Structure formats: structure tokens, C-alpha cells
């Protein structure tokens, strides 16, 4: 499935999703925290015309394989070829549990599902059982490492948090909002350690950590950061815009980033 080079994370309940789609983003992503029910995704398909819709992520500890298969079948009936199933969990569980779960997803073609994979063993599963991987909070250097582990053919879609703000203090404060939660999860802290961040960086959410994994600044600067992921081997980068309310968000942010992308869309 072709995701395009760039995607954008949307609020599936917002009235402007069609306008964001028409800015040229190949894929519209939905954060896992917004998936209190799976028909949110079929609703987004109905509200748009052509973009791929992808959840990042459907958590296996919340939704059963049967529910995910039913979602896929409903999506194929309503909007054939437009749903990419993103699967993953913030909970640290044995890999055998994931394998058992995937065994029950055979009704969903392998090329229509992605795995949130950060470490080497999950990347191996993404290579063998999925179309590819959806990592996040990666530096471009670690994107290159993930590409090497996946091999040349699987899809590598990298999630990029960003803040449209050139003031370092306010931009970093917005950037730390998701980090305060994510760096309390083992998968993210393990990933940060693998990328070379110290216990001090992780514990204090240091400027070094923030500036390395979250892009902030001008639209052109954020696009340049995303382009480094593509150069490092990513096939697709999707923007998740953070805002304190005074910083651009939603449709405004999407327009600014789409303008900066230009012909790279």
C-alpha cells in the first residue's frame, strides 16, 4: 500500500479532516489515545475521499483480534484499499503473546498491517509478519539503524512529533508534554537508551533529548528534519503536531507544513 512520503495526524472527530486530506498528505493517522472504539476509523474513512487512514496504534490489550478483523472487513466494504492497520501496545508483554495475536489476524493481508516496533526483536517480527514498522521518538540516525534491521523492502513509517514555534523555551515545554508520559513506558525508555541517551536525559527530559527526537521551529526546519528520516531510509514520515493553544495546531499547522513541503508532497 502506498502511504506517500508524508502524513499528518488528525483528530478524527474534527470537521476539517477533508480539508487536511486535500492539502496533499498521503496518509491520515489517528493516535492510539483517540481510539476508544474502532469505528472511529471507519468514520474517518467516510469523512474523507482518497487518503489512506492508519491508526498508530490499535492496542492488542484493548481490542481482540476478532474486533480488528471486523474493522478491516467493514473498511474494505466502505472504502476498499484505504485502511492500513497499525498494531502495537505500550504494555511490556512477552513476544509470544504478540505472535499468538498476529496468528489470529490472518484475514488481514500482511501488506495491510504495520507493527509499532522499536527494538530489534519487534523489528524482526515487523519484517516477517507485517508490511513493516511504525516507530516513533527516533533520531534520524536510529531510523537508519531500523532500516538496516528491517532490510530494504519492508515499509518504514516514522512518527515525528513537532512544534511550530521558534521560541526554545515554549517549544520545548510543549514538546515535553508527551515525553512526560512516554518516557514512563518501558518500550520508549529502552528505545531512548538504545539511541544513546543517558539516564539523566531520560529522567529530566533534557534539552538534548527533546531537541533530538522532537522537531520544533519553522515549518521549513521541521520539514528538513523529516527529510533526514527519509534520507536515513524511512519510506514515510507523519507529523503529530503539539500545541499549547497559542502555537499552530490542526488545520493551521497542516497548511503551514504542506506549504513547506512543496513538491516533496
From TrEMBL:
| GO molecular function annotation | oxidoreductase activity, acting on paired donors, with incorporation or reduction of molecular oxygen
The transmembrane segments are none
Q: Which Gene3D superfamilies match?
A: Luciferase-like domain
Spell out the protein name for this chain. LLM class F420-dependent oxidoreductase
Amino acid at each position: 500500500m502506498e502511504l506517500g512520503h508524508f502524513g499528518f495526524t488528525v483528530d478524527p472527530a474534527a470537521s476539517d479532516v477533508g480539508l487536511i486530506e486535500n492539502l496533499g498528505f498521503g496518509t491520515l493517522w489517528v493516535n492510539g489515545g483517540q481510539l476508544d472504539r474502532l469505528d472511529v476509523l471507519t468514520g474517518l474513512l467516510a469523512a474523507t475521499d482518497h487518503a489512506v487512514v492508519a491508526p498508530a496504534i490499535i492496542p492488542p490489550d484493548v481490542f481482540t483480534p476478532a474486533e480488528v478483523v471486523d474493522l478491516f472487513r467493514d473498511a474494505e466494504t466502505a472504502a476498499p484499499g484505504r485502511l492500513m492497520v497499525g498494531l502495537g501496545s505500550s504494555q511490556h508483554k512477552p513476544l509470544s503473546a504478540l505472535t499468538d495475536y498476529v496468528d489470529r489476524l490472518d484475514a488481514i493481508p500482511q501488506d495491510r498491517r504495520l507493527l509499532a516496533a522499536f527494538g530489534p526483536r519487534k523489528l524482526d517480527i515487523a519484517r516477517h509478519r507485517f508490511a513493516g514498522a511504525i516507530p516513533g521518538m527516533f533520531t534520524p540516525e536510529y531510523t537508519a539503524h531500523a532500516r538496516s534491521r528491517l532490510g530494504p523492502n519492508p515499509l518504514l513509517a516514522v512518527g515525528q512529533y513537532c512544534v511550530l514555534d521558534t521560541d526554545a523555551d515554549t517549544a520545548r515545554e510543549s514538546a515535553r508534554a508527551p515525553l512526560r508520559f512516554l518516557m514512563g513506558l518501558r518500550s520508549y525508555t529502552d528505545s531512548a537508551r538504545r539511541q544513546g541517551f543517558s539516564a539523566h536525559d531520560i529522567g529530566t527530559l533534557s534539552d538534548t533529548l527533546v531537541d533530538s527526537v522532537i522537531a520544533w521551529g519553522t515549518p521549513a526546519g521541521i520539514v528538513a528534519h523529516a527529510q533526514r528520516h527519509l534520507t536515513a531510509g524511512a519510506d514515510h514520515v507523519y507529523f503529530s503536531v503539539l500545541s499549547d493553544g497559542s502555537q499552530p495546531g490542526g488545520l493551521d499547522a497542516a497548511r503551514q507544513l504542506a506549504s513547506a513541503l512543496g513538491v516533496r508532497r
